[in-house]
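Z., the sequence and structure:
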Amino acid sequence: MIDQTASQPVSDNWATTNLTILRQQLLDLFCRLAYREGDFVLSSGQHSSYYINGKEVTLHPQGALAIGRIILSLLPTDTQAVAGLTLGADPIVTAVSVVSAYENRPIPALIVRKEAKGHGTRAYIEGPTLPENANVVVLEDVVTTGGSALKAAERLKAAGYSVNSVISLVDRLQGGAELYASAGLQFQSVFTIEDLQEHFRQLGTSHNS
């Protein structure tokens, strides 16, 4: 049995460790805190034998720092903002934006509402106003079919921004990549479900040995 209450991996050098080690630390955190096996119904209505609660990691202090550093390193050099559909993407875009300031590469964060604001400007998008055609990268925690990030991309484009890519923390390999390709969006993920499941099994083996 894996100790699911573990708060963090052994190393605490989240701010200074190299990105290769940091990625492994983040994978460990996902497997210890976010990944569960059982019988689950996803937001899409699909049944699944596993569930990934990304917020257990994106709202974790070391997790957010690692996510910010890793995703910042993946952004195209011409990125002018990061954005995502509320609620899952909110802590991710925030983490990336904060880390970008420390890295002397300040990148604003935008939050895309699921429904237009019911008062004031009635806007779908919260955050700084950017120049027309500004390059915005859409971020997501866990991609299944890809619908959430695609909705965010469509609303950003409708607001006059340029959106060419999506980056997620985890790809469940259930059609998201294909959907983005069909929409002309580049896609990459930090991990796939195969990465998580392999490491989860390794943690279980080491814990039981």
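The two ends are 11 Å apart (CA to CA). Helices lie at 19-34, 55-58, 61-74, 90-102, 147-158, 176-182, 193-208.

Let me know what you think.
H.
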